[in-house]
Amino acid sequence: xxxxxxxxxxxxxxxxxxxxxxxxxxxxxxxxxxxxxxxxxxxxxxxxxxxxxxxxxxxxxxxxxxxxxxxxxxxxxxxxxxxxxxxxxxxxxxxxxxxxxxxxxxxxxxxxxxxxxxxxxxxxxxxxxxxxxxxxxxxxxxxxxxxxxxxxxxxxxxxxxxxxxxxxxxxxxxxxxxxxxxxxxxxxxxxxxxxxxxxxxxxxxxxxxxxxxxxxxxxxxxxxxxxxxxxxxxxxxxxxxx
Length: 242
Description:
By secondary structure, this protein is an alpha+beta fold. It has helices at 9-91, 96-105, 134-150, 169-180, 225-237; strands at residues 112-122, 156-166, 185-198, 206-217. It has a four-stranded antiparallel sheet with strand order 1-2-4-3, with helices on one face. The longest helix has 83 residues, at 9-91. The protein is rod-shaped. Residues 145-153 have low confidence and may be disordered.
């Protein structure tokens, strides 16, 4: 039996064209959706990278600020140390370098210093007699207060503890005499002198005297620039250094 198609050919072609166009539209929509998804992904990644870049820049700025503050603190520390050293030089009647040079310049031959310790202490006020009346008591207190305010360095005493070795007690006595004759020191006294040996216990052991001295820097001493230069020159000739 023959199949007779009563549908016109134009309708069939139009239907097929419609299906083809619809398929193309669907494929176009899928491609556009994929492109949109890729674009959104790239945009999100760019925003994330931008946020990370801002965070890194912020941390870098904080690090630079911290470095700047550290450098400023180091500069202030150096200035404070310089001020402290200057203040120490002003408060000390004799610079420590000059005092050390004087101690080494007066060493007899064969002697060596092992340890030096400088201690500054407030002057112990002598006990005053009982004032005759309240007026004298008030005047005495006023004088003490004004003296401390005007010259606080005068209320300090510099004590020196000296330790060293010498061939014999003769050199120790000569050293004490030399220090006592200097214009810088006062109250030089021997604390201890004992015999020590170098090496093992044998007949060839070398014996020497280990001594300890105490002294005090004179409060009223005032060195001129010429005096300091003389002490430095003498110390350089002796092979010392500041």
